[in-house]
Design goal:
alpha/beta; 3 helices; four-stranded mixed β-sheet
């Protein structure tokens, strides 16, 4: 077996707004599926992320609520300082500022509209 790629699926209560957030604030392109939309595939370069619509009465529990300082998605990037500035300039919801983690990785995090933490990292 050879795994060639992976994609995290995040639950959302408003797929259209969530897809728009990732397009406008994070730089992904989005394809929505269903009528009305209930699933989305987001792409940024070789990275993919998927969104699945959940019912309004379903509680979405992000990882950080279950285990402190954990993310739902972790993206490795090059030139993290540029990525950080770009997402700040676009108005992404910054969850935690860029810092050098004790494990030798530059990291910062954003949140999506459903409070999922998404971390970006680059080896120092």
């Amino acid at each position: 077996m050879k795994i060639t790629q992976s994609a995290t699926i995040l639950l959302t209560k408003d797929i259209v707004s969530s897809a728009r957030y990732f397009e406008e604030k994070v730089g992904f392109s989005a394809d929505l599926f269903g009528a009305p939309p209930n699933f989305a595939i987001l792409e940024h370069g070789n990275a993919r992320l998927m969104l699945a619509l959940t019912g309004k009465d379903v509680e979405i529990v992000p990882n950080w609520k279950l285990c402190d300082k954990t993310s739902d998605v972790y993206f490795w990037v090059d030139n993290i300082h540029e990525v950080y500035k770009e997402l700040q300039d676009k108005g992404a919801i910054i969850d935690f500022s860029l810092y050098l983690a004790p494990w030798g990785v530059w990291e910062f995090g954003i949140q999506d509209l459903d409070n999922h933490d998404i971390t970006f990292g680059q080896m120092a």
